[in-house]
Specification:
Helicase, Ruva Protein, domain 3, Rossmann fold, seven-stranded mixed β-sheet, alpha/beta, 2 domains, 12 helices, two-stranded antiparallel ribbon, 280 residues
């Protein structure tokens, strides 16, 4: 049975600690939403799951009860101690057990941390997490772009971030991560979560998303140069494409030089990259 809000409060009070804003600690305690998250992920007994930001371990314990092997990555020592204390009898790399990684889940912004990689051991896994808001975008992009062994991401994140992941060309939220998600995955909004599903209640609404990587070859390989190109051009999104890349180059590529980056569909981004940055 998942931890209740009372149990979460008591765990922290017993240690004289409070949720830390700098770590984005807003603990999901709504059991209905936890069930939705597990249902979307469709985790099976014996499956390897990466959880980032376990907090007091509510989701961690729910995943273990479902028979999953969990790699829980926690940056906050206080929270790591709670997870360890509650699950001392279930520590270890095996179904129904947890490996606690006390480190940042990311090495910089573009790679999983060494300790997390070691614990995962190159095996197929799925991300299931109530993500700290500041970690969401870089982690999700890293897993999608660099880790084909990740079969899916099932997360609660800030709704504004979710809007960026699902945005279409012309939307205010449209940006580089929108292009990446559109080209590499199918993204589904599973639920919208009001602040009251969390403790302490955040000042924003959250969203539960399912990100399922598409099978087959990528539309461009290697991916990194394309991603860097999109980031570079979008970094000047208020300018016209001709001012960013040169009017002659853009026109020669078959695009109107007065267009702006946010008007390009994901497929057009592929075409622009191939014609402006591809082999000459």
């Amino acid at each position: 049975m998942p931890q209740t809000l009372t149990e979460i409060r008591e765990e922290l009070a017993a240690r004289g600690i409070r949720p830390k804003h700098k770590f984005g600690q807003n603990f999901l305690h709504d059991h209905n939403q936890l069930r939705k998250l597990l249902s979307a992920a469709n985790v099976q007994p014996g499956e390897l799951v990466l959880e980032v930001g376990p907090g007091t371990g509510t989701l961690t314990e729910t995943l273990m009860d479902a028979g999953c092997e969990v790699v829980a990555c926690e940056l906050d020592r206080d929270m790591a101690e709670i997870v360890r204390g509650r699950n001392a009898h279930r520590m270890g790399a095996a179904p129904g057990k947890v490996t606690l990684v006390e480190a940042d889940c990311l090495d910089g912004k573009h790679a999983l941390g060494a300790k997390a990689l070691e614990a995962l051991g190159g095996r197929p896994f799925v991300l299931v997490a109530n993500l700290p808001y500041q970690a969401a975008t870089p982690l999700m992009a890293t897993l999608l772009e660099r880790h084909p062994e990740c079969r899916g991401q099932f997360v609660t994140i800030q709704r504004e971030v979710g809007d960026r992941l699902m945005a279409k060309a012309g939307d205010d939220a449209y940006g580089p991560i929108s292009v990446t998600m559109s080209l590499l995955a199918d993204v589904e909004q599973v639920a919208v979560l009001p602040p009251g599903c969390f403790w302490p209640a955040p000042k924003v609404t959250s969203a539960m998303l399912a990100v399922r990587p598409r099978a087959g070859a990528r539309p461009v390989d290697p991916w990194a140069p394309f991603s860097a190109f999109v980031m570079r051009v979008f970094g000047q999104r208020r300018k016209q494409l001709g001012a960013i890349l040169g009017r002659d180059a853009v026109a020669a590529a078959g695009f109107d030089p007065v267009r702006r980056p946010e008007t390009l569909s994901p497929q057009e981004w592929l075409e622009l990259f191939a014609r402006c940055e591809g082999p000459r």
